[in-house]
Amino acid sequence: MDDRHGERLDPKLDRHGERLEQGLAELGGRPPSPELLLRADAAIAAGMAQGRLRRRSRRRWQRLGSAALTLALVLAVGLASIRISPAFASAVRQLPGMAAIVDAIREEYSLNRTVQDALDEGYLQPLHLTQDHEGVKVTLEGLVADDYRMMFVYTVAGLGENEHADVGKVRALDRNGQSVIQGAGFSFDGREEAVKRQTMELMLQPGSPLPDWLDLQVEVAGAPYRFQFPVDRELFADKSRTLPLEETISIENQQLRFTSMRISPLSVAIEAEYDPANTMKLYGPVDMKLTDDSGTEWGGVGYSAGSLEEHKVRFEFQSPYFRQPKSLYLSGKTFRALPKDKGLIVLDAEKGELLAAPDDRLKLISSSVDAKGMKLGFELRVDGPDSPSRSYSVLGSDFTDADGRSFGLHLQGGTETSDPDGRQKLSYTYGPGDYKQPLTFEISNYPNYIEGEYRIRLPLEELPPEQ
């Protein structure tokens, strides 16, 4: 192991860990006593003191990381028990500094039942790694992960009055310097607070295992930050199971076949295929729900289409992994869809003319082309079963010009504003190029609907056991 980021505990630290383990074991389902908490305080303080004595010459961010790592190693002896005992999870929450980390993750993922369950089971790696760049401190507080994603809560402190904790480029590398992620998502804290608390979710590349060590490089408020730390694979990895499916639904004669379901600690992923013979292109469900045999609904996490093979899609939901239900049920009624011959938008950006669209609900309200690139503005009227507040991004990232050449110059785009009547303003920006008007865009989503009720049982008792 790289000696900058972790070492074997010496006998003194082992004894501190043993005393903490004994203290946790004494709980026996009871709340921790003041005496036990004082003993835990002493064990943690002693371990951190040893870390400070042995790393006084390290750079500050490395030293802070090492102190947090010492805490993690001292706690590791109890983690196996914490995973299956809410009493132990409660005890760890009351250790110094742990309550703030657990509460921060609970708050940021308050609508995610899966993350709440994971925290109840102690399925958390505390980090508390801090870096300072010209007075702006970024602290990775904690990590929840599985074989497919890593979810971080972090704080940003020291920003100026008009500065924002915007996130730029993100890289996540393993020990060999290879990237392990295919995408990232973020939440932003818009409150006027001295300390901003935000989340970062990294999606692992397909087939890439959860790394046992991570080099996380992230740009926050325009400045680079870098964190290197071990990942607790024993806690997080190799927990998923997959069940083959052979179920087909038909909605207004459009076929969708479900082929497999994967359940992991943080998500349920259901793979499916649209029939190539369908006369309509389906853009995703409006009201698809996943419920367990107790009637509990597990909210949707995402819908993937474009990044998969043609006709293949993935529906992702929160996971009942820790509750171990016997069955899940997939149900719904409505999909967004368009006839395949109406799935294109054709426009002349120089003249400001919309030449082809699915219907009159989409209007081109502004356009410009210059040396800096192209900007397009639309108004879209959303009605039907979708919520008026649902945001749409209608245009795909690529387009084809009048000579049939394809351009991938998309810079940004999506919904700018929406009103209670369902009218949305959309804007798109593209880089400069020698494209010839008119331009053709493939529609990526549209508020047009087909309906037909469906309900499928997914028997979890048929899942293979964990390896």
UniProtKB/TrEMBL annotation:
Chain spans, region Disordered: 411-431
Keywords attached to this entry: Membrane, Transmembrane, Transmembrane helix
TM annotation in the entry: 64-84
Key word rRNA-binding present: no
DUF4179 domain boundaries: 63-156
DUF5643 domain: residues covered: 241-345
Name of the molecule in the record: DUF4179 domain-containing protein
UniProt organism field: Paenibacillus pasadenensis
Lineage per the UniProt record: Bacteria, Bacillati, Bacillota, Bacilli, Bacillales
